[in-house]
């Protein structure tokens, strides 16, 4: 019964969810399965690299693709979404385990890059 509720809950459409909300969900997910002992920074990084490899395979022989992937089958887009999500979730979990506020770090990096690479004058 609990598994059915988890699946139903997981299938609910989430519109706006923060990185912190995702980190909390991932922490709860790991705790419920007693996986925390496996979630060391090294293990999470290696798992994420594996997922990046799976993501790379999707594009490996396609050459350049147009924005929005207009020529892709819906099933290929769904597969891409799954692999992108795997990478994102491992990145969020890794940052949480390392005590890094990823949202804050990313915001600071954007500001830093804006200074380093100013817009071109028109």
From TrEMBL:
It catalyses: dCTP + H2O = dCMP + diphosphate + H(+). Its main location: cytoplasm. The keyword NADP does not apply. Keywords: Cytoplasm, Hydrolase, Magnesium, Metal-binding. One of its GO terms (biological process) is DNA protection. Homotetramer. This is dCTP pyrophosphatase 1. It comes from Dovyalis caffra.
């Amino acid at each position: 019964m609990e598994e059915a509720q988890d699946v139903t809950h997981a299938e609910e459409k989430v519109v706006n969810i923060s990185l912190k909300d995702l980190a909390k969900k991932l922490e709860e997910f790991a705790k419920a399965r007693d996986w925390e002992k496996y979630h060391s920074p090294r293990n999470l990084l290696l798992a994420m690299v594996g997922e990046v490899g799976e993501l790379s395979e999707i594009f490996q022989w396609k050459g350049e693709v147009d924005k929005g992937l207009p020529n892709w089958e819906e099933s290929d887009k769904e597969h891409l979404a799954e692999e992108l999500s795997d990478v994102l979730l491992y990145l969020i979990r890794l940052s949480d385990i390392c005590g890094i506020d990823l949202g804050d770090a990313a915001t600071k990096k954007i500001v830093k890059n804006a200074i380093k690479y100013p817009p071109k004058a028109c």
